[in-house]
């Protein structure tokens, strides 16, 4: 009897310790989140000035990040415009045409791998297929460009969009397909006019998530868009981007540049977090409307 | 009535033409879709091929020696991958050692311990960590965490565990265990392999914990309820029922986190110190594959550029294998569920 109660209290204590440790682990995670967000907010807001959005980086400490923001906007736009059609069509193929086939399964599998492939290697890939060939076309002056940056970001956005389109299309009830096919509608019309429309909000969510993902990417832009201290709207030029400018300024010894980098980090974080919030809202609203 | 039937008869050739047209469009459309899907394949093959092609000079010049040499000297144009490979593996390993228990704790808390109303907000908060861009982790690491680490954590580690304490008096641990070498450092700044490992751990915690939480929820409740009915405590149910049931997917989630950690560039570049040296101590600065490429590629030429490409190829292959294992392990549980 005494042994029993000792065993019982031992198990009880073990349970309490383990569960308390799980609370501690959660607190550790939350503390780091709060710490990172707090520093970004505090340092970023302190350095926020109107000239940030007006002046270009060529002025250094007296300048702003206007050209980097414009560059980020253009490069991200190129990336999303390339990745969205290809990604949605590829996702459609996986969900509607190749579900259960061997090739379909392997591509779905490899897409998941591409999803977490190192972005810097994808940057080097785009460097090899776009920057190097165009360099040899222009007599050896290295031709980094906004286009190359956009393609690199498209490669990162692609698997995100493929995966969400695939998943969202598979959620569309098959009665919808059967009803349409029994009316004699060809499959391409069924896919483009009914299924993609039914899964629209899910696909938009995927595109927003992909945008959130690529707008914070730095590594693949270093050897593709490279950076530019002057304002340019032409993607054939070198282009700077917000993350790349933050990287450059944070590594600089100048204190004034650090402040600008923090302000840029604040703008970037807010943008990314708002995007992921927006994508959640799109998805939850669509859920309500289905009910 | 009669006229109506006649009208239908008259349109039969038209209908056939239309059916043929539809079939043709269907075929074209499915080719288009398939082409887009094959692009995913092309991306992976292209990335591997391009880096291998770019690294051919380095592989050709140094052969297998490239993998085991710790020389990285642009002056004499000799390059070896050992320092960055070691840095990549070591930082990722440290990140896993820290992140796995914490992620397990978070998943346990969210699936068994927390009151239901608290679960969704806490889970969203942890997932928010995954949404923060890596450049922000880098800045926070460089300006906030590395100085904090140098002021508050590193002195403690070097003095009580390391073999190079400030006052010269070796602790028992430093004299008798391998920890002495691991924590011995006279480098005064916060940037180090351990710092990078910690920052990486924070980055991969949301990935691992969300996979764990998801798969913990797939455990059939009758299994858990039976164990509770037999008198098990919450911890015993988690450790002896939930974890064995979800083992393969949990390992998959860990490998997923490892894959992320291996390829992470920005956060690591900021806090690793970027020193091309091999040191036994994890409190000394080092270099990782991704940070070396990010730092040197724009100014590199010739053999150095080729060596960096070769490094990228190594990174890609290693990450690919790790992620392959991760996805395969995760799939095991999905199969079990489907049975």
For the largest interface, the chains and their residue counts are: A-B, 84 and 88 residues
List the secondary-structure elements of chain A in sequence, H or E.
HHHHHHHHHHH
Instruction: Specify the CATH class of the domain at 69-241 in chain A.
Output: Mainly Alpha
CATH fold-level assignment of the domain at 69-241 in chain A: MetI-like fold
| Secondary-structure element string of chain B | HHHHEEHHHHHHHHHHHH
Mean pLDDT of chain A: 90
The CATH homologous superfamily of the domain at 69-241 in chain A is termed MetI-like
Measured distance between first and last alpha carbons of chain A: 57 Å
CATH architecture of the domain at 69-241 in chain A: Orthogonal Bundle
User: What profile does the largest beta sheet of chain A have?
Assistant: none
Q: Give the proportion of residues in helices of chain B.
A: over 70%
In percent, how helical is the residue content of chain A?
A: over 70%
Arithmetic mean of pLDDT of chain B: 89
Determine the structural class of chain B based on helices, strands and strand pairing: mainly alpha
Order of neighbouring strands in the sheet with most strands of chain B: 1-2
Polypeptide structure, described:
The complex is a heterodimer of chains A (291) and B (339). Chain A contains eleven helices and no strands. Chain A has helices at 2-47, 51-54, 66-97, 102-115, 119-137, 146-171, 174-182, 187-198, 200-215, 242-250, 255-290. In chain A, α3 (66-97) packs across α10 and α4 packs across α6. The longest helix of chain A is centred in the N-terminal third of the chain and has 46 residues, at 2-47. Chain A is globular. The model of chain A has no long low-confidence stretch (mean pLDDT 90). Chain B is mostly helical and 339 residues long. Helices cover 77% and strands 1% of the residues of chain B. Chain B has 16 helices and two strands. Chain B has a two-stranded antiparallel sheet with strand order 1-2. The longest helix of chain B has 43 residues, at 12-54. At the A-B interface, α1, α3, α4, α5 and α6 of A face α2, α5, α6, α7 and α10 of B.
């Amino acid at each position: 009897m005494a042994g029993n109660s000792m065993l019982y209290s031992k198990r009880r204590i073990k349970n309490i310790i383990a569960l308390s440790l799980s609370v501690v682990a959660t607190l550790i995670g939350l503390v780091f989140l709060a710490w990172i967000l707090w520093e970004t907010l505090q340092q970023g807001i302190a350095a926020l000035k109107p000239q940030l959005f007006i002046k270009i980086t060529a002025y250094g400490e007296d300048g702003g990040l206007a050209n980097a923001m414009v560059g980020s906007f253009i490069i991200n736009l190129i990336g999303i415009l390339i990745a969205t059609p290809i990604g949605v069509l590829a996702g459609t193929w996986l969900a509607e045409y190749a579900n259960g086939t061997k090739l379909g399964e392997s591509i779905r599998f490899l897409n998941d791998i591409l999803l977490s492939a190192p972005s810097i290697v994808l940057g080097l890939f785009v460097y090899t297929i776009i920057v190097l060939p165009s360099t040899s076309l222009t007599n050896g002056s290295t031709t980094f460009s906004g286009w190359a940056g956009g393609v690199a970001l498209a490669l990162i956005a692609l698997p995100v969009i493929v995966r969400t389109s695939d998943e969202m299309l598979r959620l569309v009830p098959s009665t919808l397909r059967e009803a349409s096919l029994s009316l004699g509608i060809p499959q391409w019309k069924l896919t483009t006019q009914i299924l993609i429309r039914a899964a629209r909000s899910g696909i938009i969510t995927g595109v927003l998530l992909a945008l959130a993902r690529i707008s914070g990417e730095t590594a693949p832009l270093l050897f593709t868009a490279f950076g530019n201290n002057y304002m340019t709207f032409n993607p054939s030029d070198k282009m700077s981007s917000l993350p790349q400018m933050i990287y450059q300024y944070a590594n600089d010894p100048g204190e004034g540049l650090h402040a600008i980098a923090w302000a840029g980090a604040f703008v970037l974080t807010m943008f990314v977090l708002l995007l992921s919030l927006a994508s959640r809202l799109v998805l939850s609203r669509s859920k309500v409307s289905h009910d | 009535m009669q006229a109506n039937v006649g009208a239908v008869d008259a349109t039969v050739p038209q209908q056939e033409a239309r059916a043929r047209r539809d079939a043709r469009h269907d075929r074209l459309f499915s080719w288009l879709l398939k082409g887009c899907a094959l692009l995913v394949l092309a991306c992976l093959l292209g990335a591997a091929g391009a880096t291998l092609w770019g690294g051919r000079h380095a592989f050709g010049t140094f052969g297998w020696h490239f993998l085991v040499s710790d020389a990285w000297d642009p002056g004499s144009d000799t390059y070896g991958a050992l320092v960055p490979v070691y840095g990549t593996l070591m930082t990722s390993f440290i990140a896993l050692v820290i992140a796995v228990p914490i992620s397990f704790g978070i998943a346990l808390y969210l699936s068994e311990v927390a009151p239901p109303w608290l679960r969704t907000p806490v889970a969203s908060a942890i997932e928010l960590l995954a949404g923060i861009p890596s450049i922000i982790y880098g800045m926070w690491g460089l300006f906030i965490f590395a100085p904090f680490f140098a002021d508050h954590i590193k002195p403690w580690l070097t003095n009580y565990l390391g073999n190079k304490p400030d006052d010269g008096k070796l602790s028992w641990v430093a004299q008798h265990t391998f920890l002495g070498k691991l924590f011995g450092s006279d480098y005064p700044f916060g940037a180090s392999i351990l710092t990078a490992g910690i920052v990486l751990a924070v980055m991969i915690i949301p990935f691992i914990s969300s996979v764990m939480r998801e798969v913990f929820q797939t455990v059939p409740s009758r299994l858990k309820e039976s164990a509770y009915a037999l008198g098990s405590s919450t911890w015993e149910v988690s450790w002896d029922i939930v974890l064995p049931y979800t083992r393969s997917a949990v390992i998959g989630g860990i490998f997923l986190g490892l894959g992320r950690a291996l390829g992470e560039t920005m956060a690591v570049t900021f806090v690793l110190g970027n020193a091309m040296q091999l040191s036994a101590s994890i409190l000394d600065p080092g270099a990782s594959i991704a940070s070396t490429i990010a730092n040197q590629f724009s100014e590199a030429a010739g053999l150095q550029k080729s060596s960096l490409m070769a490094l990228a190829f190594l990174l890609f292959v290693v990450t690919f294998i790790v992620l392959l294992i991760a996805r395969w392990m995760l799939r095991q549980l999905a199969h079990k569920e489907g049975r």
